[in-house]
Design a protein that fits this description.
By secondary structure, this protein is an alpha+beta fold. The chain has twelve helices and 19 strands. It has a four-stranded antiparallel sheet with strand order 2-1-3-11, with no helix packed on it. Strand 9 and strand 10 form a beta hairpin. Helix 1 runs antiparallel to helix 2, helix 3 crosses helix 7 and helix 7 packs across helix 9. The radius of gyration is 24 Å and the shape is globular. Heterodimer of a small subunit (PriS) and a large subunit (PriL). One of its GO terms (cellular component) is DNA-directed RNA polymerase complex. Belongs to the eukaryotic-type primase small subunit family.
């Protein structure tokens, strides 16, 4: 396809995506933190590459009006609170405090290494598809991070918001108050917190405190795992507990909720394999830059992620266990099928919202609207 014709079709495709986004926001009210008037907002439209920054709103109706009128491809608000969030000069805004934000992406996990299909579009943009099986280990990491925040750091459960990012991972936001000491913490303290979450520098003997004591008597007597234990052993027990729950082994999960005496042999038989797997998950891999940044822009819950056409979905802790990528996540399930034209060379079979697809440049498949919108938003297809 000549480049001029491709650009015309790409422009028509962006207009379609903008219309669909507008229709979504006409039906969906914005989800905002109670102190949104102190936050900076930002957006990117479907037709522009630059971001609209330094927006501020004083009412939810103003936000709703903006979303319907501009139908943004991406919509964010700041993790920080400012005295004057609408000023262009960042230093003049008057930084007050910031929430604690964590980002877990499936493509950064070790078990998902090499499972990403990289694609370059004809217009010179790069995108990628990750094997959707990787979303489950990312969801598990989010559960484990939640445990660290609540059980180890003492964060109140109601302060923690969990969300599917609309793409390939999850966000956890600890909504803090201006008066909270952690809200005013700088980058150094937040970096230390990231290292704690990642279990950086954790020594083996900390996980097995009984060995140095009991081996003198000739045989080890392990401290029974319990989620009530403090320190690294307690974290290990909580990881084991979550793994047992995820595997449907409620019998093992129950054994981890109390102090039960057992022999070394019995312990190894019951928990040896489970503990070995849990040790690999003690450190939760998070994007350090996101957590350390005290002025981070974060996706607004229920806003559209323009990389996929999927919304940012708030989740309960229980919902994370069975979370899968499917067409039901899309707000466009009731729309008619769409015929699209593949314009990029996709070198392998990819999975899109549960559908395995082998797509070649020039193909013109008719697909369910959620799948078609996903591929259009990725930039690998245009409206046929």
């Amino acid at each position: 396809m000549p480049e001029e014709g491709l650009r015309a079709k790409a422009a028509r495709t962006r207009r379609l995506l903008e219309r669909l986004t507008r229709e979504y926001y006409e039906k969906r009210d914005p989800s905002l933190p109670s102190d949104f008037a102190l936050r900076e907002f930002a957006a990117q439209t479907w037709t522009g590459k630059s971001y609209i920054r330094h927006l501020s709103f004083t009412s939810a109706s103003q936000v709703k009006q903006f979303l319907v009128e501009r139908a943004p491809r991406h919509f964010y608000y700041s993790s920080a609170r400012y005295d004057q969030p609408g000023l262009d000069d960042m230093d003049a805004k008057g930084w007050r405090s910031a929430d604690l934000v964590f980002d877990i992406d499936a493509d950064h996990l070790p078990e998902c290494s090499g499972m990403t299909v990289e694609v370059e579009t004809p217009l010179g943009e790069k995108t990628s598809f990750i094997d959707e099986k990787c979303i489950k280990p990312a969801a598990l990491r989010s559960v484990l991070l939640y445990d660290i925040l609540v059980d180890e750091l003492g964060v109140e459960e109601k302060q923690v918001a969990l969300e599917f990012s609309g793409h390939r991972g999850f966000h956890l936001t600890v909504y803090l108050r201006d008066s909270d000491e952690l809200a005013r913490a700088g980058q150094d303290i937040r970096r230390e917190l990231v290292n704690y979450v990642k279990a950086v520098g954790l020594r083996e003997e900390v996980l097995e405190p009984w060995r140095s004591l009991s081996l003198r008597r000739g045989r080890p007597s392990p401290i029974p795992p319990s989620i009530d234990l403090a320190g690294a052993r307690g974290r290990l027990a909580r990881v084991m507990y979550r793994l047992a729950e995820a595997a449907g082994r409620r019998d093992l999960a129950r054994r981890l909720t109390g102090r039960v005496q057992m022999s070394y042999e019995e312990y190894q038989k019951l928990f040896g394999e489970l503990e070995a797997r849990a040790r690999e998950l003690l450190g939760v891999e998070v994007d350090e830059q996101v957590t350390v940044d005290t002025r981070r822009l974060i996706r607004a819950p229920w806003s559209i992620n323009g990389k996929t056409g999927l919304p940012v979905v708030p989740l309960s802790l229980d919902a994370l266990y069975g979370f899968t990528l499917s067409e039901s996540l899309s707000p466009f399930t009731s729309y008619d099928t769409l015929r699209i034209e593949i314009v990029a060379d996709i070198p392998a079979t990819v999975t899109v919202l549960g559908n395995r697809l082998r797509l070649r440049r020039g193909d013109k498949p008719r697909l369910p609207a959620p799948v078609a919108v996903y591929l259009l938003a990725k930039g690998v297809a245009v409206v046929a």
